[in-house]
Amino acid sequence: MFIGIDLGTSSVKMILIDHEQNILATSNSSLTVQSPQDGYNEQNPQEWIDATTECLNALKEKKPKEFSQTVSMGISGHMHGATLVDSNGKVIRPCILWNDTRSHKECYEFENQQFDVRSISGNITMPGFTAPKINWIKNNELESFKKISKVLLPKDFLRFYLTGEYFSEMSDASGTLWLDIKQRKWSDKLLTCSYLEEKNMPQLVEGNEEAGILKKTLRDKFQFDNNVIIVGGAGDNAAAAAGMGITEQNQSFISLGTSGVFFSPTQRFLSNTGDAVHSFCHCLPNKWHLMSVMLSASNCLDWICSITNSSITDTLQNVENYFAEVNLLENSSFFLPYLSGERTPHNDPHIRGSFHSIKTTTDATNMQYAVIEGVSFGILDGINSVMKVNNNFEKIFMVGGGSKSEFWIKLLSSLLQRKLSVCNQSEFGAALGVARLAMHVDKNIDEKKSIVKEIEISKNFEPNTDKINTLLKRYEIWKNLYSSNKKIAPNLLT
């Protein structure tokens, strides 16, 4: 038996599978995010431990015999978070999360070097990445900086709790800006940009390699029969890709989660820093991937539902009915979905969300539609950026909470003019992905069966040709709205 742990921003999800990848049990436990100021987002690592414990207990209760026979575990996690640990293994301060934009000034400091930072890191420096967060801590919380023994990504702190050992793996480490992406190793040059050394980093492994053994105290607490191996695991999106068997360059996926992501594997190192495309290692040896990221996707839907006092189900139905009406779109309002700034393609920490072309006839449904459409335009922005360096993908799979909406998928299919596919169990895709990675340590399992196998498609969606021209015209207007807002955005922030 194998366990996959997915440490998400809003919850921990967990999955128990057998040797045939049958899902025996799942569990989840909610997490909270603290936002002490605009652009600040933090999380208490103790919540990760508590939620993981709750999920493990739930799996044990549902399938006690199978749970006890667990051979190995894999861990996925939200990327870029700066979890600071002192020499005694104690957390120094709350973890600064991936969607925190406070370190935008430190990005310039990080790149102001006598060498080309981007050629090694493969990425433009953004406040969401781990490195500028450390520079911010040095500049603003010097006492905390002086205590740093290790800087751990969220899932790797959870691994430290489970094993007592410091490990990370290539896909998640790619999002720190300290990894030499092409060589798949820590870069001494990049670490000096944050006043750190390799001794402050965890040891690197590939996602399917052993990275510690579950502590005896925890093995006894949960009554496992075996010494449970913890594998390297993966960053959240690489884990989701592994869960769907997306490892080849003709495959890709769109994730409509808290953030919006387009993920495309490559067989070699490629980059497009000009459009803020992420160039990362994949979670399997000798594989890489390109990724576009928008910071606000399904959380824009959550926000507009709250503002209009409508459930997600009712909102999506309202929007679907609205979309079916002839000519309504031509006079609809527009929405820029930048509630927390933006990454691909703008790398703009100052921009914020906004409605445009509001009229006396604008109602709640019109605004709800504008939000869904605006997020979809942001996804298209990202895909267009990736296609500048890699357009080999044919299959596009849908994952994340937003993938439950057939209307939203149909809208995206029309906008992208491509077929989109939905998979079974996509909600637990990342957990399944790292459970698959965990299977690699069992020598009795064929590697190709455990990780390369593409997940079963439950439904395909084709473009609505009647709407394509209207959507593309609106997309061009929408892009101009960002260009106009960019000029004044910094002055709007206090």
In short:
With about 500 residues, this protein is of the alpha/beta class. It has a domain at about 1-235: Nucleotidyltransferase, domain 5 (2-Layer Sandwich). Helix 13 packs across helix 14 (about 365-385) and helix 14 packs across helix 15 (about 405-415).
Q: What report would you give on this structure?
A:
With 494 residues, the protein is α/β, with parallel strands linked by helices. It has a domain of 236 residues: Nucleotidyltransferase, domain 5. The protein is built from 18 helices and 24 strands. The strands form seven sheets. Strands 1, 2, 3, 5, 13, 14 and 15 form a seven-stranded mixed beta sheet that branches. Strands 18-19-17-16-22-23-24 form a seven-stranded mixed beta sheet. α15 links the parallel β22 and β23. α3 crosses α5 and α14 packs across α15. The longest helix has 25 residues. It is globular.
Q: How are the SSEs placed, and which strands pair?
A:
Layout: E1 2-7, E2 11-17, E3 23-30, E4 42-43, H1 45-62, H2 64-68, E5 72-77, E6 83-85, E7 95-96, H3 104-111, H4 117-121, H5 130-140, H6 142-146, E8 150-152, H7 154-163, E9 167-169, H8 170-173, E10 179-180, E11 185-186, H9 188-192, E12 203-205, E13 210-213, H10 216-222, E14 229-231, E15 234-235, H11 236-244, E16 251-256, E17 260-266, E18 278-281, E19 288-294, H12 298-307, H13 312-324, E20 334-336, E21 354-356, H14 364-387, E22 395-399, H15 406-416, E23 420-423, H16 429-438, H17 447-452, E24 457-461, H18 468-492
Parallel strand pairs: 1-5, 5-14, 5-15, 9-12, 16-22, 22-23
Antiparallel strand pairs: 1-2, 2-3, 4-7, 6-8, 10-11, 13-14, 16-17, 17-19, 18-19, 20-21, 23-24
Helix pairs in contact: 3-5, 11-16, 12-14, 13-14, 14-15
